[in-house]
Design brief:
This protein has 255 residues and is an alpha+beta fold. The chain is built from five helices and 15 strands. Helix 2 packs parallel to helix 4.
Length: 255
């Protein structure tokens, strides 16, 4: 019962995160505050410049507050999100979070806390901001970014693998789960480490799932699907939604 509650909670967390990311991806512009509240000077320690530099990697058009802004933002501030860094430091550790706010001041997204134990403030704040940025899902990408729209199945470098057993997908029945079952054994996937998790590849090789670590042992969030991956006895079970139907698939995974 407890396990089911944990899985439901994880699914709900994943749905909320997906909804937040989807909302952000509709914005074309991000405007970074030139002076964060916890600092005395504009762009002190290059914190604003660094934040702008990092977020540009996600395909957004990013500006500092004191830069010349596009006419579209000047006419309608709600076309952009305001970006700030929140300081949660203590005596021993510098801690930073990147905050996304809409034109009404509502927080629509925030990163996890990035931490640094560097003794020099410039290095400490820059390291903490970088670590906070690194917790952002790779799904965070301006939705009209040409790179994202043209994205196809990701290919990865070949690796040595074993032969997989044949897998049969049963046809969907109304009111029932669509379950992928095996004739002999489960399909084998191979884990390649990524930031905060792994990408799981098949024999082609193609990326089947991108999974993120959670605080629950042997339970992962499937970031490229609305679902979770967890271990059940000798198998790993992937559960996710496809067109309103829960799909359940079973795998052997080589970590």
């Amino acid at each position: 019962m407890i396990k089911k509650i944990i899985l439901v909670a994880l699914l709900l967390t994943n749905y909320v995160l997906k909804a937040q990311i989807t909302e952000i991806n509709t914005y074309k512009y991000l405007v970074v505050e030139e002076k964060f509240d916890f600092l005395k000077k504009s762009d002190q320690y290059k914190t604003s410049s660094l934040t702008k530099f990092l977020l540009k990697k996600n395909g957004f058009q990013v500006f500092l507050e004191n830069e010349k802004l596009p006419e579209e933002i000047i006419k309608n501030k709600c076309k952009s999100l305001s970006i700030s860094v929140q300081d949660e430091s203590n005596m021993l550790t510098v801690k930073s979070k990147i905050i996304f706010k809409d034109c009404y001041g509502k927080i629509v997204f925030s990163t996890d806390v990035g931490k640094s134990k560097q003794k020099e403030y410039p290095k400490a704040y820059q390291e903490a901001i970088r670590k906070a940025y690194n917790t952002i899902s790779e799904d965070l990408q301006y939705s009209n970014n040409e790179k994202k729209l043209n994205k196809t199945v990701e290919k990865v470098a070949p690796i040595e693998i074993e032969n997989d057993a044949t897998v049969v997908k049963l046809p969907a029945q109304k009111g029932k789960k669509l379950v992928q079952e095996n004739l002999n054994t489960t399909t084998t996937l191979y884990a390649q480490p990524k930031l905060n998790g792994f990408q799981l590849i098949n024999t082609k090789p193609e990326v089947v799932f991108t999974i993120l670590k959670t605080n629950v042992e042997k339970v992962y969030i499937i970031s490229n699907r609305n679902g979770i991956l967890y271990q059940n006895k000798d198998n790993w079970v992937a559960e996710y939604y496809d067109k309103g139907v829960i799909i359940q698939e079973f795998y052997q995974i080589k970590f």
